[in-house]
Amino acid sequence: MTSTARWAKSSYSSNHEACVEVARVPGAAGMRDTKALGTGPELWVSSDTWRAFVHVTVANGFTR
User: Distance between CA atoms of 55 and 64, rounded to whole angstroms?
Assistant: First the structure.
């Protein structure tokens, strides 16, 4: 999955804080720690799971 993934760093990330990158591929979304410079573990979930996560996060005010 990761060979076709285009990773994007969160616009809220900075060089000195916890950072996260997200990638979307057909049917899935991946997350990883930016500080690992692309060498750390990745967590992949289905697109449905990702949409549910984003919905609950926004609905509970965790937008930043």
Answer: 14
Q: Retrieve residue 45's tokens.
A: 């979930």
Q: Are strands 28-33 and 20-25 parallel, antiparallel or unpaired?
A: antiparallel
Cβ pair 26, 17 in contact under 8 A = no
At 6, which helix (H) or strand (E)?
none
User: What's the predicted TM-score (pTM) here?
Assistant: 0.75
Q: What percent of the chain has pLDDT over 90?
A: 42
Q: How many CA atoms lie within 13 A of 52 on its CB side?
A: 6
What gap in Å lies between CA 64 and CA 58, rounded to an integer? 9
- The Cα–Cα gap between 50 and 11 comes to 18
Any idea what the Cα angle at residue 15 is, between residues 64 and 63, rounded to 5°?
A: 5
